[in-house]
UniProtKB/TrEMBL annotation:
GO terms for molecular function: 5'-3' DNA exonuclease activity; 5'-3' RNA exonuclease activity. It comes from freshwater metagenome. The lineage of its organism: unclassified sequences, metagenomes, ecological metagenomes. Residues 2-66 form the Polymerase/histidinol phosphatase N-terminal domain. This is Unannotated protein.
């Protein structure tokens, strides 16, 4: 089984990188990608957990914004972790998260919701890239909502009055940076309309021109019709089709390997990196 999209405590997951690899091994996963938000901090810990006959794919999920303000997530896989431009882009994105979080907390407090920035910090694991899931966890801890899902549904989704955008690369800029660092770029859950505004089919031509390698098609936040539409786009544009769990541990309902990538599609995707960077023991 091949799962190319997971998160650890280095962003908004609840398993450490080491624990996630061990859990993947127990689940029978043969190829796992670690793709924390705007961070490669979990790479070293995850490498220390691998066993023979297991492939570890190192990457990151990059937060992007289109020119008209639509949030897009880009999976960068198999890039050179020492590439300075890539690491600078990730660092810049992380640096915008604290001012954004402060503003969201201020908006919530202005409406009488008892939450402050310290509550968010306490909800985030040490060293994690702070994001909305940690704000959601803080709201759960304070008894304001019952779960992360409820927090996003009622307060933190992209259409909420409490949502605050942040400085981020465009999808084209992110793709170019990933490819320049030798990796491959896969757009994550592009038609997940339940999350808010989504890109249109016509957007893909610009992404392909920038170097897009694949589309995450099989994902729980995209219904059957959306997945069929994405399959057609992938075939037309000769893009790799992936399926992934987007696992976050107990932070989301997503189960490891609930969606997977076909081995032939993974082989094609992996061949498009500029070097063989899959980690094996």
């Amino acid at each position: 089984m091949i799962d190319l999209h997971t998160h650890t405590t280095c962003s908004d997951g609840t398993d450490t990188p080491f624990a996630l690899v061990k859990k993947a091994l127990s689940a029978g996963i043969t190829t796992l990608a670690i793709t924390d938000h705007d961070s490669t901090a979990g790479w070293s810990d995850s490498i220390s957990a691998i066993q023979p006959h297991f492939e570890l794919v190192l990457g990151a999920e990059i937060s992007c914004l289109t020119s008209d303000g639509i949030s897009v997530h880009m999976l960068g896989l198999l890039f050179d972790g020492e590439n300075n431009e890539m690491q600078q882009m990730l660092a810049d994105s992380r640096d915008t998260r604290i001012p954004r979080m402060r503003k969201m907390v201020e908006l919530l407090k202005a409406d009488g919701i008892d939450i402050d920035l310290e509550d968010v910090y306490q909800a985030a694991p040490e060293g994690a890239t702070v994001g909305r899931p940690h704000l959601a966890d803080a709201l759960v801890t304070k008894g304001i909502v019952g779960s992360r899902d409820e927090a996003f549904l009622e307060l933190l989704n992209n259409e909420s009055k409490y949502y605050v955008t942040h400085a981020a690369p465009t999808p084209v800029e992110a793709i170019r940076a990933i490819r320049k660092a030798g990796g491959v770029a896969v757009i994550a859950h592009p038609f997940a309309s339940r999350r808010g505004q989504i890109i249109t089919s016509s957007t893909f031509s610009d992404l392909v021109e920038a170097g897009l390698n694949g589309i995450e098609v099989h994902h729980r936040d995209q219904n059957a019709a959306e997945q069929e539409n994405l399959i057609a786009i992938a075939h037309e544009l000769k893009l790799v089709i992936t399926g992934s769990s987007d696992y976050h541990g107990t932070g989301k309902l997503n189960g490891l390997a609930e969606n997977t990538t076909h081995p032939a599609q993974w082989e094609l995707l992996e061949s498009q990196a500029d070097a063989r960077r899959v980690v094996r023991k």
